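Researcher: Good morning. I'm working through a list of sequences from a screen, and I'd like to move beyond sequence-only analysis. For each chain I'm collecting a predicted structure so we can compare shapes side by side. This is the next one on the list. No need for commentary yet; just the structure.
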Amino acid sequence: MSLKLNTTFKAAIIWFCVSSGTVIAQTLPLSNNLIGFNSDEGERLLIQSRSREDFFPLSMQFVTQNNQAFCGVASIIMVLNSLGVIAPETPQYSPYRVFTQENFFSNEKTKKVITPEVVSRQGITLEQLGGLISSYDVQAKVYHAADTNLEQFRKIVSENLKQPNNFVIVNYLRKEIGQERGGHISPIAAYNEQTDRFLIMDVSRYKYPPVWVKAADLWKAINTKDIVSGKTRGFVVVSKNS
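Model: Good morning. C-alpha cells for this chain:
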C-alpha cells in the first residue's frame, strides 16, 4: 500500500475519532481478545482491510444511543442516514432532513412494530429490529443464528462490506466477546481478512470504543438465545429497495 494511501487513511481515521464527539478515554477496559479501534493496531487493521466499504458512510453518521435501551434505534438511524433515505421533518434542522433518535418513531408504521416507550424499558428483539427498519423505504433481511452457521455468517457479512449502499446490523450478547452485561445491537463497518476480525461500531460510545472482534467470537455471541423472543440473536442486512 502506498504512503499516500496510508496518509489518507490516517487523516480520515483521525478525523473520525475527533468528529465523533464522544470522549473515549474513560470507556471500560477491553479484554485481551478485543482490539480497540482507537489503537495503533486497530488503525492498522482498517488500513489492511479490503472489506471496508461501510466504514466511511457509517463513521459520518456515528451516534451515541440516547439511553441504555436505544442501541437498536441508534444503529438504525445510522444506517438510514448512510443510505440517504428521506427522513421525517425535524423542526430544529428545517428545511434539512435527517433521522434522529427523537424523530424515528414519527412514522406510524414504526409505532405499530413497537413503541418508543416499550423500547426504552426493554430494548428490541432481532425480529423487531427488522420490522422497525422495514417500516421505512428499505429492505431488511433478518438472519437468526440458528438458521445459519459461522461460515455463512462470515461470507454474507464480509461480502456485504465490499459493496456500497447496503449495511449489516448485528445483535449479540456482550459477555460472549468479553464485555459487560447483556444483549446489544450495533452496525458492522469493516472486515480484516488477515486476522478474521469484524469492526463493530459500538453505539454505546460512553461505554466502549469501536472494537475489532474475531469472527468466531462474534458468531458465538449472536448464537445465543434472546430471553424476550425465545429465539437466537443474529444480524440484519439492510439495503435500498430496488
